[in-house]
Design a protein that fits this description.
This protein is α/β, with parallel strands linked by helices and about 290 residues long. The chain contains ten helices and nine strands. Strand 4, helix 6 and strand 5 form a beta-alpha-beta unit. Helix 8 packs antiparallel against helix 9. Pathway: Cofactor biosynthesis; ubiquinone biosynthesis; Quinol/quinone metabolism; menaquinone biosynthesis; menaquinol from 1,4-dihydroxy-2-naphthoate: step 2/2.
Length: about 290
């Protein structure tokens, strides 16, 4: 019997699960705007950027995003399990393998939130980790989780804007960003900052929701994202609007090739893309050479 590749199997499992859940919780999902193929959030000329499907002044987006994550922080980890049906844990394990933790090397975990990526790095034998996030509430949850796991010794917490990092040039060996880039106003600035703080030979890795590559997944994935997730957000976290934004932010995020081109524009070399679960998520990697 022909063996089905690992992530194709998970895409099939996800399709079945999502179909089951959406059949129970939706009647129809209506029309969903097409996936954005542009470098979302970089429209300097208009002075506006996306906040989900809304156009807002560029200076306002950070405040709005900060409010969203302050609201979702207490239930963030539970909702990650619900939103991805638990598959985000598998994606993060694969991401950690790609990060390739090494003793004596330092990880900068951008938009690190409640700490999953930093924790995996430390548990896998990596050196120090800097858990950075613009939102103090998310870092507070991360600090509590680190303390309960005995991981505070090699972990530094940094409240910082990923667009203007308070770190020296060439100061870290790896930069990671998991499910955070789509919430940034100026994504190209974030990519340039990630490259700036990397040592020569260092690598940047981004795990993010992306463009579905399995056609059968698209209709049920849209129904899940735009009908089920907001309802679950209301039921579990008492916050429909924040989870509506999170679903919309995925739709507005650049597709795989557009993000790869942005990384090259930021100066990264050897840029590569690895799709996970039929393109629902993807890992983008690039080197500073």
């Amino acid at each position: 019997m022909k063996r089905i590749p690992c992530f194709k199997r998970h895409a099939i499992v996800l399709l079945r699960r999502v179909t089951s859940y959406t059949a129970c919780m939706t009647e129809s999902h209506g029309t969903v705007p097409p996936m954005n193929n542009q470098a979302a959030g970089n429209d300097q000329a208009s002075g506006e950027t996306d906040f989900g499907f809304r156009a807002v002044p560029r200076g306002q987006k950070k405040t709005l995003v900060r409010e969203v994550f302050a609201s979702v922080a207490p239930k963030y980890d539970l909702m990650n399990d619900v939103m991805s049906l638990g598959i985000h844990r598998l994606w993060k394990r694969v991401f950690n393998t790609v990060l390739d933790p090494r003793p004596g090397q330092t990880l900068l975990d951008l938009a690190g939130g409640t700490g999953d990526i930093s924790f995996n790095w430390l548990r896998s034998g990596g050196g120090d980790a800097i858990l950075s996030d613009i939102n103090p509430a998310m870092l507070g949850v991360g600090r509590d989780r680190a303390a309960s796991r005995g991981l505070l010794g090699n972990l530094r917490f940094l409240v910082a804007d990923a667009e203007t990092l308070p770190l020296p040039d060439r100061s870290v060996d790896r930069v990671s960003m998991a499910f955070g880039l789509r919430n940034c106003t100026d994504k190209l600035a974030v990519l340039k900052e990630a490259r700036r703080v990397l040592k020569t030979g260092g690598r940047f890795h981004c795990l993010e929701f992306s463009r579905v590559t399995v056609a059968a997944l698209e209709p049920v994935y849209d129904a899940w994202s735009f009908q089920v997730l907001p309802r679950l957000g209301q039921a579990i976290a008492g916050d429909r609007d924040s989870y509506q934004y999170l679903a919309e932010s995925i739709r507005m995020f650049p597709d795989q090739e557009t993000l790869a081109d942005m990384m090259r524009e930021a100066g990264f070399s050897r840029v590569s893309v690895r799709n996970l679960s039929g393109g629902i998520a993807a890992i983008h990697s690039g080197w500073r050479l």
